[in-house]
TrEMBL record:
Keywords: Signal. Coiled coil: none annotated. SUPFAM superfamilies: Concanavalin A-like lectins/glucanases. Gene3D superfamilies: 2.60.120.200. One of its GO terms (molecular function) is hydrolase activity, hydrolyzing O-glycosyl compounds. Residues 230-296 form the Secretion system C-terminal sorting domain. The lineage of its organism: Bacteria, Pseudomonadati, Bacteroidota, Flavobacteriia, Flavobacteriales. GO terms for biological process: carbohydrate metabolic process. This is Por secretion system C-terminal sorting domain-containing protein. InterPro entries: ConA-like_dom_sf, Secre_tail. It holds the Pfam family Por_Secre_tail.
């Protein structure tokens, strides 16, 4: 259990790397089991599917422990039901998610579906269309591409990259393979609405491991990334942090993700004698951004 908590804490802190947000629905991210509606700005638009059909559950994840499971009430909705949240309006960005669908010959789905929401006026950028028949499409109002068939009960990683400025296109990736590139619709000024949609016709799906990234900021972060060394590691009394940058703050988190210690920013040599033995994550805040390192107190 301690190892799992440490891995979750690492993932949680990594989600705050400049330009990238990770949503894995874990307790350490502030999510609770039960309906996801109302948590972290997730909401639904539906005719008659109750909030209880959109739950944070444990033990059905592709990453960590938790995920969101969407279940059908078998009451077909002619207008699609949307589980969605607002996302930042980046010039160039990518968004990905792991999804698993329940069964064939039931619901239709549009997953990882992106829109430009302009004060309630929606323009569709595109998404992945999992049809009840088993066909899978990369789809938008501009065009679509047949990607073959999908398999129920299998995890798929979906990713979309959108460039609003230079190429003005949308790229679709299925399990990390580029499968389609399309022009971006002229009405999609800035994609800002992330949706997972279905028609509630007898089957549901699971979503996990959502990653939203500002591609411009990530590119800058990669160029300015500094090499950080922590020694000795493991250590019992003092550690030294070596980095070619000014350190603004150093924070120690335990395996459960709780902040345990904040060190003074004016010294690279830090007294860790008061820490109990175990695994820690060190968050090092510099002028270039935030880096995290694993550390063992012996």
């Amino acid at each position: 259990m301690k190892k799992n908590l440490f891995l979750l804490a690492t993932a949680f802190l990594s989600s705050y790397i400049a330009g990238q947000q990770k949503i894995s629905f874990e307790t350490i991210e502030g999510y609770n089991l039960g309906t996801v509606v109302g948590q972290k700005e997730w909401t639904v638009k539906t005719d008659n599917v109750p909030n209880s059909s959109f739950k944070v559950v444990t033990g059905k994840a592709s990453d960590g422990n938790n995920s969101v499971e969407v279940t059908s009430t078998n009451d077909y909705t002619e207008n699609f039901t949307y589980l969605f949240k607002k996302i930042p309006e980046y010039n160039r960005f990518s968004v990905s998610a792991d999804v698993k669908l329940e069964k064939l010959d039931s619901s239709d789905y549009y997953l990882l579906s992106l829109y430009y929401n302009n004060n309630g006026n929606y323009s569709w950028a595109g998404g992945f269309n999992f049809m009840y028949s088993g066909k899978l499409y990369a789809d938008s109002d501009v065009n679509f591409k047949d990607l073959g068939s999908w398999i129920p009960g299998k995890w798929y990683n979906l990713r979309i990259e959108i460039d609003h400025v230079t190429e003005k296109n949308i790229k679709y990736y299925l399990d990390n393979q580029l499968v389609h590139t399309s022009a971006l619709g002229s009405k999609v000024v800035r994609a800002n609405d992330l949706n997972f949609e279905f028609d509630n016709d007898g089957s549901g799906f699971i979503v996990d491991n959502i990653i939203i990234a500002d591609m411009d900021q990530l590119a800058v972060a990669d160029l300015s990334k500094k090499q950080i060394n922590i020694f000795p590691n493991p250590a019992s009394d003092f550690i030294t942090i070596k980095i070619d940058d000014k350190i603004n703050a150093v924070k120690f988190y335990n395996a459960a993700g709780s902040l345990i210690k904040t060190a003074q920013a004016n010294s690279s040599k830090i007294d860790i004698s008061s820490l109990t033995k175990g695994n820690y994550i060190i968050s090092i805040e510099t002028e270039s951004g935030i880096e995290t390192k694993k550390f063992i107190k012996k």
